[in-house]
Write a structure and sequence with these properties.
0% of the residues are buried. This protein starts with 15 loop residues before the first strand and ends with a helix. The chain is an alpha+beta fold and 66 residues long. The protein has helices at 33-44, 62-65, and strands at residues 16-21, 48-53. A two-stranded parallel ribbon has the order 1-2.
Length: 66
Amino acid sequence: MMMRGAKPRKEGLSLKRILYLTDLAYVAKGRDYAKEDIFIADRLSPRYAVAMCHPRSAEAFEDAMC
């Protein structure tokens, strides 16, 4: 999903990587953290390679993201 105003990713370029840790199932009164985190990751994706995962799963990706 490309957001309005976001520039398309240029193929073949090596992008810096972000491991975005989030609990998409977290319930908060008056907030939809899942939508907010997906929106942020989408906005970052034209300039960075973004991977989202739950904080408890992060250890499995540490070596790959360094």
